[in-house]
Amino acid sequence: MSPKTPLLDTIDSPSDLRKLSRDELGALAEELRQFLLYSVSQTGGHFGSNLGTVELTVALHYVFNTPYDRLVWDVGHQTYPHKILTGRRGRMGSLRQLGGISGFPRRDESEYDTFGTGHSSTSISAALGMALAARLKGEDRRAVAVIGDGAMTAGMAYEALNNAGVSHNGVHADLLVVLNDNDMSISPPVGALNKYLARLMSGQFYAAAREGVKGVLRGAPPLFELARRFEEHAKGMVVPGTIFEEFGFNYVGPIDGHDLDALIPTLENLRGKRGTQFLHVVTKKGYGYKLAEADPVKYHAASGKFNPAEGFPKPAGPSKPTFTQVFGQWLCDMAEADERLVGITPAMREGSGMVEFHKRFPKRYYDVGIAEQHAVTFAAGLACEGLKPVVAIYSTFLQRGYDQLIHDVALQKLPVVFALDRAGIVGADGATHCGAYDIAYMRCIPECSLLVPSDENECRQALTTAFGQDHPVAVRYPRGSGVGAAIEQALTAWPWGRGVIRRETSAANVVAGHPRIAILAFGTVLHPALAAAAALDATVADMRFAKPLDRDLVLDLARRHDALVTVEEGCLPGGAGSGVGELLADAGVTVPLLHLGLPDEFIEHGDPGKLMAMCGLDAAGIEQSIRQRFGVRPLLAAVNS
Q1: Inter-axis angle of helices 192-202 and 260-271, to 10 degrees?
Q2: Using 50, 70 and 90 to split pLDDT, how confident is the model at 171?
Q3: How far apart are CA 107 and CA 114, in angstroms?
Q4: pLDDT given at position 191
Q5: Based on the domain organization, do 524 and 565 belong to the same domain?
Q6: Residue 402 forms part of a structural domain
Q7: SS3 label, residue 176
Q8: Are 504 and 432 found together in one domain?
Q9: In terms of DSSP H, where are the helices of 484-591?
Q10: Same domain (yes/no): 468, 516
C-alpha cells in the first residue's frame, strides 16, 4: 500500500519546496524516502543510491533556484528523488517502462534535467560549460555538479577539475562540485567537529580572514610561504581536500549528507560565493532501509517488484544461466588452464560476472575503477609482457575507450580479448546502455575480429576461440539468458572465420514462383530467424563471425539462393549486413539483399521482448519483412499452386 505523504503531496515543483519552513524539511525527506521505497518496489530500478541522496536532493532544490540554477547529476542512478520533487511523482509508476519516464536524467523529459546522463564522470565538464555560458551571456546563475566517489575515479572528472580551476579569458566559473561520497572508508569520521569546520570554512568570515592575512604576509615572502604550508597541512589533518585545493577549488567538508541542518547552511554559504567551490558530503547507500544499508551491492538495483518488508526475493530454484554467468565460469576455467590469463574490469565486478574469478584468482584480477580508457591501455601493457588480458566490459562502455582500442591495442596487434556484455538491446536502462554499435565500430578497425555467438554454449566456445588468437578479438553477447543450451565443459574452439548452416531450404522450394531465401544470422537473433525460416522454408546460416566474415559461405549462399537476408541485433549503418554487402560487391556478385537490424535511431527503455518486436527482430517481424520485400507466399500455398 502506498504510504501516506501529506507534505510530499503538496510538492509539485521545487518552488513549492522552497515555501516550506526549515523545520518541515526533515518530515518531507522522510516522506520522500518512504514514497521512494514504495515506488521502486512496484517498478524495480536503481535503489540504494537513491535512498542515499534524499536529504541532499531536498537541500539542493531548497537552496538553489532550480531550474534557473543548473543542477547536473552524474550518471543519474541517484535522481529518483529529484524526479519526484520536480513534478514527476505521478509518473513514477511508469519508471523505465516503454513509454514511461527514464531511469536517468533526460533533457526532453523535464526542464529540471539540465543534462542527460547515463554514463559516469560527465557532470563537472557539463556544469563547467553551463557556468561559463552564463558568464558569457551575463546571467547570474549557478551551476552545480553532483558526482559520486566512484565516478571520481575516471580521468574525465580530473580533466574537468583541472580546466575548471583556471581562469577563462580572465574569468573564473561560478561552479559548485558536490562530491557524494558513500564509501565511508575513504573519509574521516563525520560528527560535530566536521560540521563546525564545514560551516566555518564555507562562511564569509573565514574567507575574508584568510585573504586578509595573505595580503599582509605577501609583503614578507618567507612568512607567507610558511603560513601557506601551515594552512595546507592543518586542513589536511581534518579534511582530505588538499588535492582539490591544488586544482583551484575552495574545498569544504566532509559533512554529513543526511543532516539537513549541516547541508542547508553550508550550501547557502557556498551559493553566495564566486568562483569554483567543492563540497564533500558523506552519505550511506540505502540510508533509512536497513536491508539496503547492510548490503549496498545487492540493493544497488531491483530487477522487478518486491515486498519492502521482506527485501529482494530469492531466486526461485535453478534457472538458465545468463550469458554473464557463462562468461564468469569460462573465465575461471580458462584461468585454470592457462596461467597467462588476467581479468580486468572497469568497476563492474558483479555486473560482468567476475566475483568468483576474483575469489579464486585474486592476484590475476584487476578492477581499475570507472576508467575505461585506462582499462584498455592497461590491458595493452600486460599483453606486451606476454600475458593474455581479458577485459570484461559492457558494449557501450568500450565506446569510451575507443581511441585506446585503436591506437594502443589494434595498431600494435596485441592479443587482448574484449568480452562485450550487454550487446544489443538492454531494456530498462535505455539508450545510454543499449549496445547497438559494437559490430559497426569493431568492423572498421584493422587487426580486430568480432565473434557473435548464438547461445550459451556457443558463447563459451567463442570465448575460447578468441583467447587462442594472437591479435585483438571481441566477443559480444546480450544481457540475460539465452535459449538454455546445454553447455559443454570442454574448452572447445571454433574453426577460425567459419560459419555453419543451421537449416537448409527443402525441395518444396523448387515450386515455381517461390524464391529461395537464405538468412544470415549474427548472434542470438539466430533463434527468431530459425522460427521465421520454418514458415518461409528458408535456409539459415549461423555466421558466428561478424569479422572476418566467412567469404566462402556467403558466396555459396548467394550462388544457391535468389535473395539473402542479414539479421543482427546491432545498428544497420556499418553493421554486419553492410559487411556482407561489401563482400558481395568486392566479389562482383549481384543478388537481392535485405538487411534487418536496429534502426538508425536511439532505442528507448522498455521490455526487451517488446523492443525487439518493435524493431522487427522477433520471429514474426523477420518473417513479415521478408514476405513484404520478396513477395514470398505461404509455403503451403506455393506447394499447392
Answers
A1: 10
A2: confident
A3: 6
A4: 46
A5: yes
A6: yes
A7: strand
A8: no
A9: 526-536, 551-560, 576-587
A10: no
- Asked whether 304 and 95 are in contact (CB, 8 A), the reply is no
Centre a 10 Å sphere on the Cβ of residue 619 and count the other Cβ atoms it contains.
Answer: 19
Assigned domain for 309 exists: no
Residue type, 413: K
In this structure, are 135 and 212 located in the same domain?
Answer: yes
Buried b (16+ CB within 10 A) or exposed e, 581-593: eebbeeeeeebeb
**Which phi and psi (to 5°) does residue 548 adopt?**
-75, 145
**Domain count for the chain:** 3
Q: What is the pLDDT of residue 228?
A: 52
Do 437 and 567 share a domain, yes or no?
A: no
Sheet holding 70-73, edge to edge: 70-73, 143-148, 175-181, 276-282, 250-256
Residues with catalytic roles = 285, 372, 400
CA distance 38 to 427: 22
Look at 339 and 200; give whichever has higher pLDDT: 339
The Cα–Cα gap between 52 and 585 comes to: 57
> Do 113 and 25 lie in a common domain?
yes
Name, in order, each residue with C-beta under 8 angstroms of 400's C-beta and a sequence gap of 6 or more. Answer: 119, 372, 373
Q: Could you tell me which residue, 333 or 197, shows the higher pLDDT?
A: 333
For the segment 190-195, the average pLDDT, to the nearest whole number, is: 45
What's the confidence (pLDDT) of residue 150? 81
pLDDT band at 634 (very low <50, low <70, confident <90, very high): low
Rounded Cα distance, 546 and 454, in Å: 12
Q: What is the mean pLDDT of residues 143-147?
A: 95
Supply the pLDDT for residue 430: 82
Domain that holds residue 335: 323-476
Q: Phi and psi of 454, rounded to 5°?
A: -100, -15
Same domain, 508 and 396: no
The more confident residue out of 118 and 69 is 69
277: closest CA among 238, 244, 231, 229? Answer: 244
Among 167-181, 218-232, 460-474, 594-608, whose mean pLDDT is lowest? 218-232
**Average pLDDT of the residues in 64-71:** 96
Residue 496 is which amino acid?
A: W
pLDDT at residue 211 in the model? 52
| Contacts for 239 with CB less than 8 Å, ≥ 6 apart | 188, 194, 197, 251, 253, 254, 280
**H or E segment to which residue 144 belongs:** strand 143-148
CA distance 368 to 372: 8
CA distance 509 to 639: 8
The SS3 assignment for 83 reads helix
Range list of β-strands (E), 19-117 = 45-46, 70-73
Looking only at the bridges linking them, the beta strands covering 545-547 and 539-542 are unpaired
Residue 483 in any domain: the answer is no
pTM: 0.84
Q: What pLDDT is stored for residue 210 in this prediction?
A: 52
pLDDT category at 183 given cuts 50, 70, 90 is low
Determine if the peptide bond prior to 240 is cis (ω within 30°): no
Provide mean pLDDT across the span 180-195: 50
